[in-house]
Amino acid sequence: MRIMVVGSGYVGLVTGACFAESGVNVTCVDVDTNKIQQLKDGAIPIYEPGLEGIVRSNIDKKRLSFAADIKEGIDGSEVIFIAVGTPPGEDGSADLKHVLNVAKEIGHVLTKYIVVVTKSTVPVGTSEKIRNTIQYELDKRNVSIPFDMASNPEFLKEGAAIDDFLKPERIVIGIDNEKTREIMNRLYMPFVLNNHPILFMDIASAEITKYAANAMLATRISFINEIANLCDILGADINNVRKGIGSDSRIGSKFIYPGTGYGGSCFPKDVKAILRTARDNGYELNVIKAVEKANEYQKNVIFSKMTKFFNDNLKNKIFGIWGLSFKPKTDDIRESSSIILIEKLLAAGASVRAYDPAAINETKKLLGNQIEYTSDPYEALINADAVALMTEWSEFHLPDFNRMSELMKGKVIFDGRNIYDPAQLRKLGFTYFGIGRR
Hints:
CATH class of the largest domain: Alpha Beta
Distance between the termini: 58 Å
Number of strands: 14
CATH superfamily of the largest domain: NAD(P)-binding Rossmann-like Domain
Strand content: 5-15%
Radius of gyration: 24 Å
Shape: elongated
CATH topology of the largest domain: Rossmann fold
């Protein structure tokens, strides 16, 4: 089977590489010619554990190739996945210009029947817009070429995307005819041998499923963060509360870990997009609106604790920052709580020295030389008035606290992920601040 994936970013590259790993012949297309040349050379432009090995292996086996033009790879393809970005517009709605540009190109070069699949996260009705755009271009060419649409949202966690794709909990596919079902079922069959289901449904339901899933996960995060903030006020310990509610089978323990708010490329924009979709249709999603508001508040929690501790005077203070990415095992700093904290510290006149195992290069693109970057976590602590742990990379879990104490000017730790034992640190002479912990 031969397919094409348009868009070689995070979702597109993982999708193409994992299909190639299952034996499918895949052409990944991207308009960024520099990126395409990188990929042809076996260099991976994103950080994702396990991805580089799969890409190089399948290039060597000639199952995975790269092109800068849809026309180069469309011949012989049975399926085209659209996996380009849908960034939020100023009003919060998903910007579909890249998706519709791909649809236009497909209409220009299509010569035989194909299934066009939206892999990008898109609002309800986008598949119809794609269908209409392709048909409009075919009509302009005065040709009659049949094609079908499908919606196949991705559920990939950054840092675990390869396992998520190769061993999916479920695969959601929106279709409107049996022919499309047969083609998509054949394509995905190798991935469901572990008995996890392919959920076929109508296209509109598939389109909204991704937004609903991310909105629910974002709700759980904002909920536990608000309870943690209440614990701070009341003198309770959120870890005890979390265990108490997580043991209820109706609630469970996943996504109820307090922290500094959700970030990344999905939750923030998808929450905004589903809110906008509802408003455009005359309905307010009041719970999800509150989720977004709570998350905006949570992004400032560590900065507020710092400001209070240092009596509203952060000028000329030195802060060590551990972690820049929005979560471990990725270099993605989009909507990262750490970046927001750093920007606030700089605005308050503080100096920042930061370390991250993967995200320093991405941070340099954004912040340049406004902060100091270190190649070692302890170097970031030299003469620091305080350290803030913002991303729970595994190498931060068991640091040498005695060494930290010797390096730091002020023995103050702001633990944005609640991974340290407050009692232990206080015995060692540190002042400790967590999220919702006594």
